[in-house]
Design brief:
With about 140 residues, the chain is an alpha/beta fold. The chain has six helices and four strands, in the order H-H-E-E-E-H-H-E-H-H.
Length: about 140
């Protein structure tokens, strides 16, 4: 999704105007220091913002495979979508929260994918609700 949105910005920028919102669940192209607000779960029925420094410095598996820290990452999503994106990544999810090249190596050797496969229906529904609320503000 991340890369497809970047391609749209380059090749079909007019289509971006028709996108009301984007939910990024376990984005493998998540870049270090991205402007997209990152949530790591829900608490009390609301999205819980990730406050972990480790999460802030982690990145997606696609990004890691292309060079990881110091390499050319996927980059940010189109700026026209800034307020229309909700992203969730569980801490320890090997698809969106790698922190070193070693993490990518461990995927190949049998890394635990439980944090990638345990996103709950409540989390996904809350992401959708957050997108609707944001779209109504605009």
């Amino acid at each position: 999704m991340h890369l497809a949105l970047q391609d749209l910005e380059i090749f079909e920028p007019g289509l971006l105007k028709s996108i009301a919102g984007v939910a990024m669940l376990s984005d493998p192209a998540r870049d270090v220091g991205s402007w997209v607000p990152l949530y790591d779960g829900i608490e009390g029925g609301l999205l819980r913002a990730s406050s972990s420094v480790g999460m802030a410095l982690s990145y997606g598996a696609w990004w890691a495979a292309r060079g990881g820290s110091g390499g050319a990452g996927a980059g940010d999503l189109p700026s026209s979508l800034t307020s229309n994106v909700v992203a969730m990544c569980h801490q320890g999810d090997p698809v969106c929260a790698l922190d070193t090249w070693d993490s990518l190596v461990r995927i190949v050797s049998g890394l635990d994918f439980s944090q990638h496969t345990n996103y709950s229906e409540a989390e996904i529904l809350e992401m959708g609700e957050a997108l609707v609320v944001e779209a109504m503000r605009q």
